[in-house]
Write a structure and sequence with these properties.
Elements lengths: L3 H34 L11 H12 L3 H8 L2 H29 L1 H28 L1
Helix pairs in contact: 1-3, 1-4, 1-5, 3-4, 4-5
Length: 132
């Protein structure tokens, strides 16, 4: 296996990770914009410590698949595919759900920023595993 292939696969997994960060940032600003536009009459969203930890863990977990790709072992390749696939599926479902609730523009952003590059990363990971 060439040295470039694990690095390329890690970069492919970083793209949906960056997309997820962009999505959640725009989602927060979108909510803030709606809150300001309503004159502060809509109910604010508050997070407790458990919710903040959960959000941090889920979005922080996006660095795991690229790191596993760099390890370039059979077991870590499978772990990359499973963990990355779960993150991809959870982010897609959560993002579409949030987009339907908060505005259609967020659904489009989710599909463009996370789902499309995530699907490419899953397919490339599967091809990488099959080729080795």
């Amino acid at each position: 296996m060439s040295e470039k292939k694990p690095v390329g696969l890690a970069i492919v997994w970083l793209v949906p990770a960056v997309g997820a960060a962009i999505f959640v940032t725009i989602q927060c600003f979108s909510f803030l914009n709606d809150y300001v536009r309503s004159g502060g009459t809509m109910q604010a969203i508050t997070f407790g410590p458990a919710e903040l930890w959960a959000i941090s863990i889920v979005y922080g977990a996006w660095v795991i698949p690229p790191l596993l790709a760099l390890a370039a072992r059979r077991a870590t390749d499978w772990a990359m595919l499973v963990i990355g696939g779960l993150l991809f599926a959870m982010s897609t479902l959560g993002g579409v759900w949030d987009g339907l609730r908060d505005g259609g523009h967020l659904v489009g952003l989710e599909l463009l920023a996370v789902t499309l590059p995530g699907a490419v990363a899953v397919i490339m990971s599967w091809q990488h595993i099959r080729s080795n």
